[in-house]
Amino acid sequence: MIIRTENLVKQFGKTAVLRGINLHVQAGEFVAVTGQSGSGKSTLLHLIGGLDRPTGGKVWLEDHDLGTLTDDQLAAVRRQKIGYIFQIYNLIPVVNARENVAMPLILDGVSRKEALTRADRVLDMVGLNGLERMFPAELSGGQQQRVAIARALVIEPSIILADEPTGALDTRTGDDIMTLLRHTLRHTQRTVVVVTHDPRIAARTDRIITLRDGMIEDVMSLAHHAAPSAAVLTIQGGL
Amino acid sequence: MTPFLPRFIPLALRYMQRRKLRTAFTMLAILFGVMVLFGTSTAMPVIRDAKILSIASTLSAGENAENDTSLDLSVALMNSFGMLSLFVGGFLIFNTYRAVLVERQRDLALLRIVGATRRQIGQLILAEALFQGLVGSLLGLLSGWVFAGWLIRFIYDTGILPNIDVPALGVPPLDALLIAIGLGIGTALLAAYLPARRAGLMSPLAALRPTAPDTERRSTRIGWIAGAVCLIAAAAMLMISGQIAMLAGFLCLLGVVLMMPGIIRVSIPLLLPLLRRFFPRSADIASGNIMRQPRRSAVTANSLMVAFAVFVASAAMVDAMHSYMVRLFTFHLASDYLVMDQGNMLTMITSNMDNQRVLDSQMVAQINASPEVEAVTGIRVGQTTYQGQSLMLVGIDPSRTALRPLDFAAHVGTIDEALAMIQNERAVFVTPEVTRLYGIQINDSLPLTTDSGSTQPYRVAGIVADMTVGTGKLGLVLSQQHLSEDFGVQDDLVLYLNLVDDADPASVRQLLAGNAILVDVAPFRQMGISGVTDVTKSVYLFALLVIAPALLGLVNTLVISIHERTREIGIMRAIGSGEQLIMRMVLMETLLLSIIGGVAGILAGLICGASLVAIFAPTTVVSTLGSMEFQFPVIGMIIALVGGTAIALLASLSPARRAARMSVVDTLRFE
Prior knowledge:
The complex is a heterodimer.
Chain A: E1 3-12, E2 15-25, E3 30-35, H1 41-48, E4 56-61, E5 64-65, H2 71-81, E6 82-85, H3 97-107, H4 112-125, H5 141-154, E7 159-163, H6 171-188, E8 191-195, H7 199-202, E9 207-212, E10 215-221, H8 230-238
Parallel strand pairs in A: 3-8, 3-9, 6-7, 7-8
Antiparallel strand pairs in A: 1-2, 1-4, 4-5, 9-10
Helix pairs in contact in A: 3-4, 3-5, 4-5, 5-6
Chain B: H1 4-18, H2 20-58, H3 73-103, H4 105-113, H5 118-157, H6 174-201, H7 204-208, H8 213-240, H9 245-278, H10 283-292, H11 294-332, E1 337-341, H12 345-349, H13 361-369, E2 373-386, E3 389-396, E4 407-411, H14 415-424, E5 427-430, H15 432-438, E6 445-449, E7 455-465, E8 475-479, H16 480-487, E9 494-499, H17 505-509, E10 516-520, H18 521-564, H19 566-574, H20 579-616, H21 634-661, H22 664-669
Parallel strand pairs in B: 3-8, 5-7
Antiparallel strand pairs in B: 1-9, 1-10, 2-3, 2-9, 4-7, 5-8, 6-7
Helix pairs in contact in B: 1-5, 2-3, 2-5, 2-6, 2-18, 3-6, 3-11, 3-18, 5-6, 8-9, 9-10, 9-11, 9-20, 10-20, 11-18, 11-20, 11-21, 18-21, 20-21
């Protein structure tokens, strides 16, 4: 079990965003978390990724109880075990693509030279060969998201957390990104948790967890990774 | 520092490379601070040594020249400018880093998300500060060296250092070098430390979200309280002692800085109805932008506030000095004409009248007897020793002080009784410096050494500030009769005279002998006053030099403030705002912040100015003329408000235009 939450609760002031989430994710699994806006998807992702602390309950990442870690220990977990991908890429604008990708390694104490070499390798893997020295503003949305994926992959994380990774992209580019994620997953045996409200994206995962009002409403395992099944589309459409 | 620091240098350099303008401004702020500090601290010892040399060459005995030399008012003023400049530079760098961190909040959050520790975030900022501090300080040292040379020349040109050549600038003292570079780098690091620490403490998610209103409200409340504590402490310090007035001034500025978000919250709703009347479309948007994040707005307002405060404080100090000097000239030069040796003319202005050429006694007798002369009185100068120290003696005719008034700080009985006393018995008036140095009081008896070597007791009948002796010098004023009897001085150095109505000055000129000249006092007085005015203008220039870092900081914060809102401006354009509206909105914000920062700055500047005057007033004489007094620097206030607002508007014009003209697509894509 790579991710486990026990009765996870998160409140912002008096508003309860998550109300007792019990979630288990196996190593190598590709999981989608879906739900309406405000259902708590992103908050759940933030708690799993150690970006925020729960109001109640526990989050386990591999052997770490995230609630018991200090701020610096949490930073180390993020640095070494988690790769993040965001909807709006969140690249550092003043450095080029390879430096963006190398950043987590540099933060982890890897020499600059080695970090850049590894960054180039991963950028090549995500199809950005030749664009390493471009700055974020010079890249298209899809290319920027590939840089973000490369940045998430470069640390060889146990788990990749993606928050609406295709939300800012057109359908075709979004499909490309998902294919890239799927492909990467297959080759590297990483666990991926993707938050999305797009049924087409969700349908390409192993399991769909649907949240409603801060609670798990439904869990659906998918046997294949082809086009979304009619059942999935019905569920998503009804939300 | 951990080994991580060098790892961040490339990233820090990249930030600086991509944000060239603000990096240059930050380094310029450090440069100016170090330049003024290093310049003054290098030039001051040279000036002090030259001053001692100058006085030694004018004193016949030459001994005790060092004791006789208190630091000149202008040199002390330079020193305080150096400190002010450093303070302004430091504050501005702090402000710039705060603004930079607000701008980079998202980038820093991102680093935190990918695993940067708090310490690493702090190190990134400090690496940048270290680089900027180092480069700024080194450039500041070079500029400071040039500035020191100019400063010495400037002081020399004011005539403070007569009888010597322009002093040369030697090898810079190592301590001044180290202090300047240490303070330059230290100021940059210190200014960056708090913002860096704050950035490190921010949680990754909090940094990705806009600041919550309740956080803003809480910090505004804390700002009010902390600011009020600073202001109360400053007021208490001013009441306790004038010596710590400088600290009180700084505390006052700090208090206003802390209160600025609160001041903005209170004053914008008050200004809004007025603005709506003139700018109905942009007033609400502009004030809304300011009110949304008062802390961010306060960064710009505070830059202006400090610039205004320093300028107004300097103006208050300079005006007080100017007014005091004008009073001195007007008071002491009460006659219509002077007769003196031409060679004494320059030293008359610089108050070094000892050891000068005296007037021919036969000529003086003829002038006294001339029917064209209504009244005349002379000044004679001699020397005595008291407790082994050389003192200057000034002989006056006590019955004719109307032509050359004495500036009494204290005296026995009435002024007439005091004058009668020095006429009728062995009595003297002493300068305030004598009372300070020897602890002498009125009615004390001073055993003075006469020219025959014996001592005669002289009673102290009053304390006077005498222009002949000069401010802050050791001197005694006595009757010409006793100066002649005990010290053997019988010749006049200067004659002060009024002519009868319709008299032709040429008739007096015919009586002149040797190098003596008849000086019309009105233009002479005017020359003295305009000399003071010239010095005043120069000090205004110094004030501008001090506020230069403040103005750089202002431009910097405005550029950053507009830059960080590029995306927001794009959204406004996207929903239909025209270029004109965007321009007006940005300019309106600047105008509002200028008014708030300007008014707060002027008030803080007046308090700081009063503090400065309180520090320097004791160095001027206490007398019937009064010491240096605080003056409302009306012109300085107008220059600050109009000039400062104009500069702020000009500074915001370029980024406002750039933002307004950017393509909507580009602004929306902006990160």
